[in-house]
Amino acid sequence: MTYPESSSPEVVMTVGGSDSGGGAGIQADLKTFSAHGVYATTVITAVTAQNTLGVEQAEPIPLELVSTQLKAVATDLPPAATKTGLLGRSEIVRLVAEHAFRLPNLVVDPVLVDRHGNTVVDDSVPDTYMQYLIPRAALATPNHREAALLADRPIEDEADMRAAAEYLASTTRTPFLITGGRLAPPHPPLDVFSDGIKTDSLPGRRVRSRNVHGTGDALSASIAARLATGSDLLLTIAAARAWVSRAITGAAGWKLGRGEGPIDHFGWA
Ligand code: PXL
């Protein structure tokens, strides 16, 4: 089949780690991009051996090979939007920042903690994000634990999330969406958006499901895919949040693996 040039799909690139279990990371981004009808390209920064129960091993890809992937993809298949996930080391955060001038609609999902809340990066990584990469992005989407590391202050509740979002956005001059899906009960799930001037609390719906692995990746990837076809940032965020909520609801009854299972990227349920 041939596509007339005018109907070629938009290209969206993801930079992140491979999740062998298919629920998060590069594999989840491929699914999310495909579900949104955009053409996915990938730059792999690390390979993890993991399943729904957890990560067994993680190996970084050498810096030079990450750099060559980035150049190969960005020069031949220029992305209309890019999402970053697990970058892992400061040198990779800086490498992506060096390419940012050719990466419009850059959505930075700073993966700094694992699903249990343990920090998975060196101490220098949050600062490197704040100094080099996030100021060049269209949006940053940390969860509340990652936002606490970036802002270097505790975040326990909505007031903390709002103050941190405003501080982070005004410091970097980049809009922030702090996600609070895993805020400790009794707090309802809540995301907070700030562009440094106005700050909005975006309440969510609590869906009872153990299958929430990769929800953060799905949100940032959905936002990147939607920005590629160009629309307003706040409307994009609202549409992406609704899409993720449907994907969580769809997979609530799934029994894939013995641990935290994946979400329903394609609306199968
Ligand atoms: O969900 C964050 C994430 C990103 N990338 C990789 C991951 C995870 C979480 O498990 O494994 C590769």
What this model shows, in words?
The protein is of the alpha/beta class and about 270 residues long. Helices cover about 40% and strands about 20% of the residues. The protein contains 8 helices and 9 strands. The strands form 2 sheets. It has a 6-stranded mixed β-sheet with strand order 3-2-1-4-5-6. Strands 7-8-9 form a 3-stranded antiparallel β-sheet, with helices on one face. Helix 3 runs parallel beside helix 4 and helix 7 (about 215-230) crosses helix 8. The chain is globular, with a radius of gyration of 17 Å. The model has no long low-confidence stretch (mean pLDDT about 95). 3-hydroxy-5-(hydroxymethyl)-2-methylisonicotinaldehyde binds near residues 16, 19, 25, 216 and 217.
What is the share of helical residues? 25-40%
Strand content: 15-25%
Q: Order of helices and strands, N to C?
A: EHEEHEHEHEHHEEEHH
Task: Count all strands and give the number.
Answer: 9
What is the strand arrangement across the widest sheet? 3-2-1-4-5-6
Which small-molecule ligands are present, each listed once?
3-hydroxy-5-(hydroxymethyl)-2-methylisonicotinaldehyde
- Strand-pairing-aware structural class: alpha/beta
Low-confidence stretches: none
Report the radius of gyration as a whole number of Å.
17 Å
The average pLDDT score comes to 95
Q: How can the largest sheet be summarized? A: 6 strands, mixed
**Helix count?**
8
Anisotropy-based shape: globular
Head-to-tail CA distance between termini: 30 Å
